[in-house]
Design a protein that fits this description.
By secondary structure, the protein is of the alpha+beta class. It has two domains: about 70 residues, Winged helix-like DNA-binding domain superfamily/Winged helix DNA-binding domain (Arc Repressor Mutant, subunit A), CATH 1.10.10.10; about 150 residues, no CATH class. It is built from eleven helices and 15 strands. It has a three-stranded antiparallel sheet. Strand 13 and strand 14 form a beta hairpin. Helix 3 packs across helix 4. The longest helix is centred in the middle third of the chain and has 15 residues.
Length: about 270
């Protein structure tokens, strides 16, 4: 199989009608239009509340430490946030109450993880927006170029490796991606089976099956959802990639260099 051409380095005016339970009345009638409008946000998720939770620097660093899908203790997250343990506990309580984090207890220890893959997607999207912002707001790299080459984004692969894999799958008509969703083609189903992934089991999950995820370092999309998670899991099983200690970065092994080249037409080089 010939390598693909894509490579990645080492890795309103006037009164308006208002709906009520029994009728439709205009803004000039007896219903207090202003109090009606003020009451609506209480019925919807609060964007400002979520933004305030993420916007605190210590909490943002804690959330970033969990984007790779791991569960960490309060002490570990205090270190990630650069705050004292007591302060970290206060931040973690707010994040848990805001349903951004989930708490699990094992014996005497308590572990925190992101409440869902949706939280990781939100954080990656914020990072992508921040990277295009004014210089003083641009995020700093953690982990050097290794993090940019290949890393985990919750439970799927991101960085140059993740983007290159998504490109290869699209170019070979194994998957088709739109702006907010994707499908696996019949050729793709055959490919995944030959690669050791049975996607039939993945369709039973409540999470999205196949979708693009904006990569904040590459400004392009990598593959997320159940399909993206299955690919990452399989690459770890095959020994193609390995985790770096205390980092979201992953390293491509010598076995992985051969595997990615032969299977996806990707040439990870030093």
């Amino acid at each position: 199989m010939e390598p693909s051409a894509r490579f990645f380095l080492h890795l309103a005016d006037g009164p308006t009608p208002i709906n009520t339970a029994n009728s439709v009345v205009s803004g000039d009638d007896s219903v207090d239009q202003h109090s009606y409008v003020r009451s609506m946000p209480a019925l919807q998720p609060s964007l400002a509340e979520v933004a305030a939770l993420v916007g605190n620097p210590a909490r943002a660093n804690m959330l970033q430490a969990l984007v790779d899908g791991r569960a960490l203790t309060a002490s570990e997250l205090a270190c990630a946030g650069g705050v004292a343990p007591q302060t970290a506990s206060e931040h973690l309580a707010k994040l848990t109450e805001g349903r951004l984090l989930a708490l699990a207890k094992q014996g005497r220890h308590s572990y925190y993880r992101l409440a869902s893959p949706l939280i990781a997607t939100m954080l990656e999207s914020i990072m992508a927006v921040a990277a295009d912002g004014p210089a003083r707001y641009q995020p700093r790299w953690r982990g050097g170029d290794a993090l940019r080459n290949a890393r985990t984004c919750y439970d799927h692969l991101a960085g140059r490796l993740g983007v290159a894999m998504a490109d290869a799958l699209v170019d070979r008509d194994h998957i088709a991606l739109s702006e907010d969703g994707g499908i696996v083609t019949p050729q793709g189903e055959t490919f995944f089976l030959s690669f050791g992934i049975d996607l039939r089991d993945r369709t039973r999950s409540r999470r999205p099956f196949c979708r693009p995820c904006l990569d904040w370092s590459e400004r392009r999309t990598h593959l997320a959802g159940a399909v993206g998670a299955a690919l990452a899991e399989r690459c770890f099983e095959l020994g193609w990639i390995g985790r770096m200690r205390d980092s979201r970065a992953v390293l491509v092994t010598a076995k992985g260099e051969r595997g990615f080249s032969e299977t996806f037409g990707i040439l990870p080089t030093a």
